[in-house]
Write a structure and sequence with these properties.
InterPro entries: Leu-rich_rpt (IPR001611), Leu-rich_rpt_typical-subtyp (IPR003591), LRR_dom_sf (IPR032675), LRR_domain-containing (IPR050216), LRR_R13L4/SHOC2-like (IPR055414). It is built from 3 helices and 10 strands. The protein has about 250 residues and is α/β, with parallel strands linked by helices.
């Protein structure tokens, strides 16, 4: 649409519906032709096409496949990290079982931390972690039958065993096979006694067995000459063996 503007001293806008006569334009008047906004001197208004991005439509199956691939890559990276560092850190992961990929670490694993989960089985194949030094199983609700001690007590390099805050009522005599053990944490269970074989643990320095139901302590505990810290508080003990006096390193 075009407009005429009278540029005389009494300027006025001349709309296209008006004739020159109706607008009282006099001879000699100066006129200016103006185009309305969005028009040009061509065939019509300039239109700018909107730039749109094509919509990617992926099926639910494609998303699942993509997620599965990501999970495989993540698991592979995690396993490689465990092997490189020797530390398998899985605390507070809502686990009900120790993942199979842990066993793939083999002799690379030095620490296995599965504290604060819901693990109900410590299988015999834990023995494949034959170089492990620290095993942390605290707060899993583990019962006696959940631990396959045959596998666990074969870990000859184990220095720290922590299984506090579970439901154990008994420790096996095979505990004596852990001859490298320096720290034993079994607090907050339901233990009624400690095995005589604890005396074989010549390198044991720390024994935490508080908050159980222990009624007697084996006299042979006095043979654990390396013990420097013992906590037997909050049990059902009526007396302590005299052999505790042999532990000259106690703090």
């Amino acid at each position: 649409m075009f407009f005429l503007v009278d540029k005389s001293s009494s300027s006025k806008l001349l709309v296209d519906a008006m004739t020159l006569k109706e607008s009282e334009v006099m001879n000699g008047a100066k006129l200016m032709l103006m185009a309305s906004q969005g028009l040009h001197q061509g065939g019509g208004p300039l239109l700018k096409e909107a730039q749109t991005r094509p919509i990617s439509r992926r099926s639910e199956d494609e998303y699942k496949k993509s997620d599965a691939r990501s999970e495989v890559v993540m698991d592979k990276n995690r396993l490689e990290r465990w092997k490189a560092t020797g530390v398998v850190a899985l605390a507070e992961c809502n686990l009900k079982a120790i993942p199979d990929e842990v066993w793939a670490c083999g002799s690379s694993a030095r620490v296995l931390d599965v504290n604060n989960n819901c693990i109900q089985d410590v299988p015999e194949k834990i023995s494949c972690l034959n170089s492990i030094q620290k095993l942390l199983l605290n707060a899993n609700g583990i019962s006696d039958e959940a631990i396959h001690w045959e596998g666990l007590t074969s870990l000859k390099y184990l220095t720290v065993l922590s299984i506090s805050h579970n439901h154990l009522t008994n420790l096996p005599s095979s505990l004596g096979f852990l001859t490298s053990l320096r720290q034993l944490h079994v607090a907050n269970n339901k233990l009624t006694s400690l095995p005589n074989e604890i005396s074989i643990l010549a390198q044991l320095e720390v024994l935490k067995a508080n908050n159980n139901r222990i009624t007697t302590i084996p006299a042979r505990i006095g043979e654990c000459n390396s013990l420097n810290e013992v906590d037997l508080s909050a049990n059902l003990l009526s007396e302590l063996p005299e052999t505790l006096g042999n532990l000259h390193n106690l703090k």
